[in-house]
From TrEMBL:
It comes from Poecilia mexicana. Residues 69-120, 329-349 are annotated as: Disordered. Keywords: Disulfide bond, Glycoprotein, Golgi apparatus, Membrane, Signal-anchor, Transferase, Transmembrane, Transmembrane helix. One of its GO terms (cellular component) is Golgi membrane. Residues 90-105 have a biased composition (Polar residues). PANTHER family: HEPARAN SULFATE GLUCOSAMINE 3-O-SULFOTRANSFERASE 6, HEPARAN SULFATE SULFOTRANSFERASE. This is Sulfotransferase. Belongs to the sulfotransferase 1 family. 3'-phosphoadenylyl sulfate binds at K136, G137, G138, T139, R140, R217, S225, K342, G343, R344, P345, H346. Disulfide bonds join C325-C337. GO terms for molecular function: [heparan sulfate]-glucosamine 3-sulfotransferase activity. It is a single-pass type II membrane protein. The keyword Cell membrane does not apply. Residues 128-366 form the Sulfotransferase domain.
């Protein structure tokens, strides 16, 4: 009887011990489960919480505004198809500007944004001004210089709305733009607008008061620069002269080649003047943007109705790259220069081919000088 009681007490003790171990393990497992769940749950919330709150993009920076919208909605969500449509369009907008995004030095975009990354103030607006051209004229430099100004907020990528994604609608376009406060200007740049036949009427439909900036450059030099850029992507490209001239060096200039066609500034401007008066345009010299960036930026700021903030103190000339760079801004770790894709050495082009092009462009250049009231000195 006594021994039996001992055995009962002993068995009960073992059971109690096992129950205690089991409960301890359950508590430990539950603790780790909630810790892990909380950690995983917290990561995306910081990125998307503001988007959910206001239905738009956070102002993380001009490029990540597009990236934020790439998060797909749950499949059962009633707006899934609409969000997927926006997401595809945003991916397209990023893809078409892939090269421009590579032009930044690491960390440079964060250093240019004077508004904090977490900013959610202001509203998204359609652009007041657009840099509409021209390719390889200096549009990227102009945009980067303008972004120094505290009253300018610009989308960093090229949205290509008025030439490639017009069917996405103005609301899609507006949502790409950064937030602006009262008194600030919303801007974007897409150089192909200037040569796109449908672009002027589309921009006019959006806002007939839009200010338009065209950065132009000697069309011969511009064509060679355009060819050089393409050559880096396609090393097997035929020679410049064989593309620019029909029947190699003996035929006339081939104006159907895009590198040549873009330089017919007078013809493209005629298309725009059907929808906008000349007073809505500012023509920036790509050459003077290199030789006198502060002077050209003064003209740009006046045209946009901005206080002259950008001046000589913001620039220094980089001898290696051959163009001006921005001095190190306050609170930044480095000066800012455009990336490796800018300032590429041009291939050797036979002087005969270049002269043929100069002769070809001369009447178009003269016509352009007359239309704009500016002599750019390309002849």
């Amino acid at each position: 009887m006594g021994c039996g009681g001992c055995r009962v007490r002993l068995n009960f003790g073992k059971v109690l011990s096992k129950v205690s171990v089991f409960l301890t393990m359950v508590l430990i497992f539950t603790y780790f489960f909630y810790c892990l769940a909380g950690l995983c749950d917290s990561a995306p919330r910081t990125l998307y919480s503001q988007q959910a709150a206001d239905g738009g993009y956070d102002n993380l920076d001009d490029r990540s505004q597009v990236l934020v919208d790439l998060r797909p909605p749950p499949p059962h969500h009633p707006g899934a198809q609409r969000q997927l449509h926006k997401r595809t369009a945003s991916q397209d907008a990023l893809q078409v500007d892939a090269e421009q995004q590579q032009q930044y030095e690491p960390g440079s975009e964060k250093e240019t944004n004077s508004i904090p990354v977490s900013n959610t103030y202001g509203t998204k607006k359609l652009p007041n001004a657009i840099i509409i051209g021209v390719k390889k004229g200096g549009t990227r430099a102009l945009l980067e210089f303008l972004r120094i100004h505290p009253d300018v907020r610009a989308f960093g990528a090229e949205p290509h709305f008025f030439d490639r994604f017009y069917d996405r609608g103005l609301e899609w376009y507006r949502n790409l733009m950064p937030r602006t406060l009262d008194g600030q200007i919303t801007m974007e740049k897409t150089p192909s607008y200037f040569v796109t036949r449908e672009a002027p009427s589309r921009v006019c439909t959006m806002n007939r008061h839009t200010k338009l900036i065209v950065v132009v450059r000697d069309p011969v030099t511009r064509a060679v620069s355009d060819y050089t850029q393409t050559l880096t992507k396609n090393p097997g490209l035929p020679s410049f002269q064989s593309l620019a001239l029909k029947n190699s060096s003996t035929g006339p200039v081939d104006s159907t080649w895009s590198a040549v066609r873009i330089g017919l500034y007078a013809k493209h401007l005629e298309n725009w003047l059907q929808y906008f008066p000349l007073s809505h345009f500012l023509f920036v010299s790509g050459e003077r943007l290199v030789s006198d960036p502060a002077g050209e930026m003064g003209r740009v700021q006046d045209f946009l109705g901005l206080k002259r903030v950008i001046s000589d103190k913001h620039f220094y000339f980089n001898q290696t790259k051959g163009f001006p760079c921005l001095k190190k801004p306050e609170g930044s770790s480095r000066p800012r220069c455009l990336g490796k894709s800018k300032g590429r050495p041009h291939p050797q082009i036979p002087s005969e081919a270049l002269q043929r092009l100069r002769d070809f462009y001369r009447p178009f250049n003269q016509r352009f000088y007359q239309m704009t009231g500016q002599d750019f000195g390309w002849d």
